[in-house]
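Practice problem: predict the structure.
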Amino acid sequence: MGLGAYVAVSAALFALGVVAIVARRNILYVLFGIEMILNAANINFVAFNRFNGDGLDGRMFAIFVIILAAAEAAVALAIVLNVYHLFNSTKPGEVDLLRE
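Answer:
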């Protein structure tokens, strides 16, 4: 399997992530879309490192992105729980008022 196959899978995953973010029927879908985009970047990092480099640079970037995604997911889920507690909705369009 060549580099093109990995890039195609990464592009499909990126496109699905963008569609999930643009559709934004639910805040959780937006978070899932962001995670899919980050995973598409990870696939590119590792694939290009495998086919074009000898070092560990691509894999280290991928591990850093995974750690960053885990922290982002924890903070975002805490925000989603707080928004649901305040507004009783997880739809982004309904959460447009700031609390006084």
